[in-house]
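Methylated-DNA--[protein]-cysteine S-methyltransferase
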Amino acid sequence: MTSSLGSNMFSAIVAAPFGAMGVRTSGGVLCELFYLPPQYESKPAEDAVAEQAAEQVQRYLDDPDFRFDLPLARVGSEYQRKVWDAICAIPRGSVLTYGQVAKLVGSAPRAVGQACGANYFPLVIPCHRVTASGGIGGFSNHDDETGFHLSVKRWLLAHEGVAGTGAPWQQQAMAF
């Protein structure tokens, strides 16, 4: 079943192997990216930034080594941006645990998880590369083991060459 329901909320919608990516732009910057379930139809870009974002999302989906270069809205708290910067430094094919990221930023694992869940730019800021110490962890403020969002996280990690979807993630975690 396809649906245009809600598509007017997005400046573009890009089909993805796990469903779709919604793109929201305003004032010449990317405001948000969203993981969308498969019932969303692709939607052509409404403006130049949406076109650029849609093209770059597609390039990442085709090549996990692609590096995004988009004009991003300045969003989030100073703390969230600090966590997001640490996450951006995790190379493709590697993961860190929430606890490891917390040590890097001088914080607590739960606060790191909350910053991950508040990420406005998934894929660009690869929060999928942050896992729990004993398994995959949550994703986009969801932790239903069989739900859509964790299936997206599993797809992204597999796409980037991280083997397995369960414990022990520490074997693949990046040393710091």
